[in-house]
TrEMBL record:
Entries under Pfam families matching the protein: ACAS_N (PF16177), AMP-binding (PF00501), AMP-binding_C (PF13193)
Residues reported in the UniProt entry to bind CoA: 191-194, 309, 521
GN (gene name): acs
Name of the protein described by the UniProt record: Acetyl-coenzyme A synthetase
Binding annotation for ATP: 385-387, 409-414, 498, 513, 524
Family: Belongs to the ATP-dependent AMP-binding enzyme family.
Length: 646
């Protein structure tokens, strides 16, 4: 590999192949922050079809925890993602499905998408779903997950997608919190040749969800599943006789579109609520500009529909732009580690968007599999979810992109709805590891802990001044929590929970979460969730979970467990606890290490000193800091002596 450069100027080649140059980006950015309402009104006219114009472009008052965009405007998200394209694109491909097995694929035109979504919407209506009702979607990565989301949007129901990697406790908590009464699932999902029993997980979760009256089951594998005639509905049979027309519901821009649960530093996950107008505009606009999407191109985001990236950049953004979006069911390493590149070649992918963790895993396996594929169609590369280390960036740029493709490192969050910071391809230079510059209308700032804004080159806490249309509106059912979590720390500003640096050229570098949120393989996990799962086990008295640096996953999960006096430490119990977390939460949340902790370092008021636990997990024993304030400093010696050497 060549020597790593710290800055890659926008090349004339990149500029020739992209559509916004540096001067245009700067002029548009200036307008977006100097005359925001004019800017956003123009974009809203351009990107969205409205039944009725809005009364007020924006009303953003963080101190009063009020965020509203295009209020009074009427639209339907599914109409914007499907119907309005039909005049010109009925026979164009909306969705390319690439199954887990390479010989399983399908192409769905915009007309077919319309018919599927309308039938699904009619089925939901038949089951009594009305505007404003919440519907849980727990599905594999198959086209039906998109049909289900769009069907909800069509009739004004609010979807809550639960990642298919979650298991019973997580499903239950989310169904109960939003009071979902209908669940859409599949018999099983298939990933990397392995089957996951989705319907069985739902059955288990529903033992404690008495309000659920319908479970719509899509057949994916035909596996034998338990069937309850009182609840369960066979999707294919049920939609077969339903009309392929369903009038879209006219929604206010500020009506809810979906709830998506995300992990916080404390307690149960938060239901992040996004609304119809601002969210769709922001998803569509960022998809268009950040990926420089051009009509007719094949666009592939490898995320899962269960995360915000899947919502905004597999379905809503691309479909609003009339794009062809690829839905991938599998994993990067099945049948072999060349799968991403083989799929790019097979479907002539133009824009490819993935996570650094996948790149690191593939990079460690060498270049041959990349080189065997014809990647000449690929024009733009993107990353999301965690900081990309410069080595992985370099590999992506040089080996995958052959130094021809701009890389967009996109920083954003479930809460932000869409990308807030990135380098626009062909417009902003690239610095490996930096997430670049703000998107239009976005005003990042760096604050110190005391709430002072730092100017120029600085490192501190990342906040956003002012709002943007795609931002979350509330925490479902708990508006106070919205204020407390994001708006209370630096009054008048949105706090991201991330630390960041701004360099002398105004580029932003994310330094990671500053709270107890982990980023494991790009999946966001709260340490509190894993701890809650562990203490459900009868042998566990107490648990504390921290992250530690992991070469491939970014962060790994390290758990300290105090057992009940009746239980005995053993390897078998360790394995049992690991499996227990997998069963309760999902396999991706499994602790990598469990250390027995007869005591945990606590202050005299009983607060666990996580800083010390993090240092021990990171093997940084010389930096343990002051332990004199602990109720019992000797517990630290025990933990240090018995730490797990990785
Ligand atoms: O810490 C940041 C990290 O992921 C967090 C948001 O996680 P989630 O809500 O699950 O959304 C992930 C996909 C948008 C952020 O607070 N993060 C996301 N993108 C980047 C990142 N960290 C560094 N660089 C990024 N490009």
């Amino acid at each position: 590999m060549k020597e790593l450069q710290s800055r890659y100027p926008v090349s004339t080649r990149a500029q020739a192949s992209t559509h916004i140059d540096t001067a245009t980006y700067e002029a548009m950015y200036r307008q977006s922050v100097e005359q925001p309402d004019t800017f956003w009104a123009e974009q809203a006219e351009k990107f969205i079809d409205w039944y009725q114009p809005w009364e007020q472009v924006s009303k953003v008052d963080f101190k009063a925890s009020q965020v509203s965009w295009f209020a009074g405007g009427k639209l339907n998200v599914s109409y914007n993602c499907i119907d309005r394209h039909l005049a010109k694109k009925a026979n164009d491909i909306a969705v390319i499905f690439e199954g887990d097995e390479p010989d399983n694929d399908a192409k769905i035109t915009y007309q077919q998408l319309h018919d599927h979504v309308c039938r699904f919407a009619n089925l939901l209506k038949q089951r009594g779903v009305k505007k404003g009702d919440r519907v849980c979607i727990y599905m594999p990565m198959i086209p039906e997950v998109g049909y289900a989301m769009l069907a909800c949007a069509r009739i004004g129901a609010v979807h809550s997608v639960v990642f298919g990697g979650f298991s019973t406790e997580s499903i239950k908590a989310r169904v109960l919190d939003a009071d979902c009464r209908v669940i859409i699932t599949a018999d099983e999902s298939v990933r990397g040749g392995k089957r996951i029993p989705l319907k069985a997980n739902v059955d288990e979760a529903l033992k404690d969800c008495p309000n659920v009256h319908s479970v719509i089951v899509v057949e994916r594998t035909g596996a034998k599943i338990n069937w309850n005639d009182a609840l369960d509905v066979k999707y294919a049979e049920a939609v077969a006789g339903l009309p392929a027309e369903c009038e879209p519901e006219q929604m206010d821009a500020e009506d809810p579109l979906f709830v998506l649960y995300t992990s916080g530093s404390t307690g149960k996950p938060k239901g992040v609520l996004h609304t119809c107008g601002g969210y769709l505009l922001y998803a569509a606009m960022t998809h268009k500009y950040v990926f420089d999407y051009q009509d007719g191109e094949i666009y592939w985001c490898t995320a899962d529909a269960g995360w915000i990236t899947g919502h905004s950049y597999i379905f809503y953004g691309p479909l609003a732009n009339g794009a062809t979006t690829l839905v991938f069911e599998g994993v990067p390493t099945y049948p072999d580690a060349g799968r991403f590149w083989q799929v790019c070649e097979k479907h002539k992918v133009n824009v490819f968007y993935t996570a650094p963790t996948a790149l690191r895993a593939l990079m460690s396996l060498g270049d041959t599999l990349v080189e065997q594929a014809d990647l000449s169609s690929v024009r733009i590369l993107g990353t999301v979810g965690e900081p990309i280390n410069p080595e992985a960036w370099h590999w992506y740029y040089e080996i995958v992109g052959k130094e021809n493709c701009p890389i967009v490192d996109t920083w954003w969050q479930t809460e932000t709805g869409g990308i807030l910071m990135t380098s626009l391809p062909g417009a902003v230079d690239m610095k490996p590891g930096a997430t670049g510059k703000p998107f239009f209308g976005v005003q990042p700032a760096i604050f110190d802990k005391e709430g002072n804004e730092l100017e120029g080159e600085a490192e501190g806490l990342l906040v956003m001044k002012g709002g943007w249309p795609g931002q979350m509106r509330t925490v479902y059912g708990d508006h106070q929590r919205f204020y407390d979590t994001y708006l209370s720390q630096y009054p008048g500003n949105y706090f991201t929970g991330d630390g960041a640096k701004r360099d002398k050229d105004g580029f932003y570098w994310i330094t990671g979460r500053v709270d107890d949120v982990l980023n494991v393989s790009g999946h966001r996990l709260g340490t509190a969730e894993i701890e809650s799962a562990l203490v459900l086990h009868p042998a566990v008295a107490e648990a504390a979970v921290v992250g530690y640096p992991h070469d491939i996953k970014g962060q790994g999960v390290y758990a300290y467990v105090t057992l009940m006096s009746s239980a005995t430490e053993s390897d078998a119990l360790q394995a049992e606890l690991t499996e227990f977390v997998a069963k309760e939460l999902g396999r991706f949340a499994k602790p990598d290490y469990i250390q027995w902790a007869p005591g945990l370092p606590k202050t005299r008021s009983g607060k666990i000193m996580r800083r010390i636990l993090r240092k021990i997990a990171e093997n940084e024993m010389e930096n343990l800091g002051d332990t004199s304030t602990l109720a019992d400093p000797s517990v630290v010696d025990h933990l240090v002596t018995n730490r797990i050497i990785k």
